[in-house]
């Protein structure tokens, strides 16, 4: 469903670099936290386009061991999208969640 | 003895030369009568106590500060006593006191002048004492001899009882000051002279008796005596050395205190455990890193799923529903297959005419087949479902709890780290205090050495004393052995008898004198005490001179339970009684005599004590102590009065003749 290589937006990347400075969590792990935070808070993609320019990694690096759950959550929220749009939806959610978590100043305040 | 004049030069609050600060202390004759009281009035801090201090300092020098005061402390006192002028760039470095007095000796009145001047140059203090006898400069005396000469005129122990601070004199009533009182009683009653006479006669007797002895034994005894004398003087000098060491070690203690203070001010208390703190900080940092790695590992795994608990729960529900519907679907297909088989078998055996009925009844018995309303979205396998179910319901909550526990542990570590870091930042750099610390170490070392030395020397002195006593005992044995066999001439016989006589005279005289003292005390006390105290009597032990007060019912009063004012009254009564019993004619100076007393005691003191205390009474008081009423009461006895006034503009005090309301 999600492509094998993925990128995220400039804005999300900046936010996640800030999180990395504060907590030592790398950008790909930050992206997972951002995704879960965003999906939980009820944010919904309204179809806007997004420029994906930063840090090409393969799907496994971005999603980790439990990537299937991320895909299922996306499919559950958006049951009728094209495959390439699921990529956009994922990136939009990372974009949205990154802002929520970028100001967490330490590891112990994250969860 | 009469104090005639006091001159001060840049002493304490008094600025200027001897001519600027001069008071005439000699009692004046008015209406053909010599009046004893000279009154000094002044507000607090004006310079009354300075006047008393000046007189004592003039007469006793270093000893006026106390018994064993080091030269260093005395010099510091002299430096501090130099007037510090207000707003002048150049402070004086010289101060001085001059005291004129006369003294009756063997029917002759001799005038004395003591002049004590000291100068500070750099850190050194140079003190010069000059004595004039009938205007004749006593030149040939050394400083030490000059002081000894003054001490012989008025012994310091006695002076404490005549020149005193009314507030402090109450200490005399304390039991622990018994030795001071005993000393004073002995001296004032002249009992010390008898003891000395007895000792002198003993020496005379020994010498005379020895002359009569065979020369061999004489020599032996001389050797014993010499050994005793040299041992005893060795013992004395050992004692003096020990005293010097004691003073040194007190000074070292002071320096040690000061250094400790400096080190504390520099944060030394923190420095001492800086290393410990640094070790702890290292350990905490390691622990923090470990905790962070653990948390990061969990966050890289399944823990973040907990961030979307609701969404994932919804997902799980969807997956469960899908599984159920799929299972139902499978079940229905299977059921349909079986029913179809049964149907065809029934039709076959019952005949085609029943086909319709069979089909209908089988259809009716089927459960509502379309209970599956779940949308199949994900369509995952059973094993996949089981894996996800386990992950979501077991693994995620476990990891979440672990992260929480690790996080709070990390928080504690961070807090501790901040605390330790603060301590470390407070701790000064070792180098900043290392000089002081090493100096402190040296001082502690030498203090320890001094203490060991004092202990050793005390032992040595004791040993010397034992040896001396041994020689003395041998000498006495020889005297006894040969004393009786020789013929004694008349002088020796008489001296011997006199010695015996003195012995009994001393104890008899002591008894009578103490008896008189008791009587005098009761008289004085009755004059000074309030009416309700009148039943009190005193009992003085002739051996120890300890004084017991006895109330009307014969019970001994605990002196510790007396109030400060009562102690003062008790002490003044005792002083007056001592003065009268001794028959010494010394002036009396009292500083702040009435401070602690109630109105009854004050009145008694003013009416009954001051006018008759001595032929010269200097009273230093504030305007509230001797107020207008008391002044009037005393005025027939007042020779003249001074007011000591402080001028805040000039920053110094001046003596005016007159009193607060009389100029």
From TrEMBL, chain A:
Highest taxon of the lineage: Bacteria
Database matches in InterPro entries: DNA_S_DndE, DndE_sf
One matching Pfam family: DndE
Protein name stated in the entry: DNA sulfur modification protein DndE
High-level lineage: Bacteria, Pseudomonadati, Pseudomonadota, Gammaproteobacteria, Oceanospirillales
UniProtKB/TrEMBL annotation, chain B:
Keywords of this entry: Coiled coil
Pfam families: AAA_23
GO terms, biological process: double-strand break repair
Rad50/SbcC-type AAA domain location: 5-266
Domain of life: Bacteria
Single Gene Ontology MF annotation: ATP hydrolysis activity
Coiled coil regions in record: 242-325, 396-423
NCBIfam families cross-referenced by the UniProt entry: DNA_S_dndD
Record-given protein name: ATPase involved in DNA repair
